[in-house]
Amino acid sequence: MKCGKCATSSFYQYIYALLSQLLRTAVKWFMQLATGKSELERILTWQTKNQGQITAEIERLIDDGELVALPDYWKPDEEDELATRIVRKYCPGIDKKQFKQLKDTLRRSLSQIQGYRELCDIVESMRKEKYDPENEQHEKRLLKLWDLLMPDEDLEGRKSEQWQKIGFQGADPSTDFRGMGILSLEQLIFLAQYDVAYAQSILSLSQHPSYGLVLILLPHS
């Protein structure tokens, strides 16, 4: 009986996805017929000061496979050439002034998308990097966290029960960086360095006898 329900649910999901795709295709065809512009051209000519909105729509077109002339990956110095090629392909019939405007808008979006992807790669790399007590840089960053959160208390030693005051489980905090790797340490440092009041309020709450919200758990959640 349960398998039958699963099959029925999958069938309806398939029908829904198919109808959604057909509807979207029909809307795109109608809009191009009514405006004489491709979807890309309509996006690039939006009257908005928010480049991020345009970039989000460009990224959607890329994810949907609408911009087949665009490779999956590109280098920053290729963005102008790519924008030129794509605007020529998908925005025919525009004059030189419009061409330059659309190309520049698309180039900025490609730059933002590439920057976002690079940032995601960096963050993922940090997440995968395990804390290494033998790594001098890791150790320096850990001690910086203590200095930021406990500026009025000297740390008696690298391994000390004092670490429990800011939420670590034991005397050696290096054992607590597991699921999120070195990224979790950098998140804590960023919070303690650039939002001091908020970090101290969380730390104070973590030391409350009733509430006890552990600060160190935040980057792992």
Polypeptide structure, described:
This protein folds into 2 domains: 9-128, no CATH class; 136-207, no CATH class. It is 62% helix and 0% strand. The protein has helices at 2-35, 39-44, 51-63, 79-90, 96-128, 136-149, 181-194, 196-206. Helix 3 (51-63) crosses helix 5, helix 4 (79-90) crosses helix 5 (96-128) and helix 5 (96-128) packs across helix 7 (181-194). It is elongated.
Key terms:
ELMO domain-containing protein, 2 domains, elongated, 0% strand, 221 residues, 62% helix, mainly alpha
In short:
By secondary structure, this protein is mainly α. Helices cover 62% and strands 0% of the residues.
| Helical segment count | 8
Radius of gyration (CA) equals: 26 Å
The percent range for helix content is: 55-70%
Q: Which spans have pLDDT < 50 for at least 5 consecutive residues?
A: none
Kindly give the count of domains. 2
Strand-residue fraction?
A: under 5%
Structural class: mainly alpha
Order of helices and strands: HHHHHHHH
Shape: elongated
User: Based on DSSP secondary structure assignment, what is the total number of beta strands?
Assistant: 0
Largest sheet: none
User: Separation of termini?
Assistant: 38 Å
Mean pLDDT figure: 84
GO molecular function: GTPase activator activity
Domain ELMO: 137-221
Protein name: ELMO domain-containing protein
Pfam family, one: ELMO_CED12
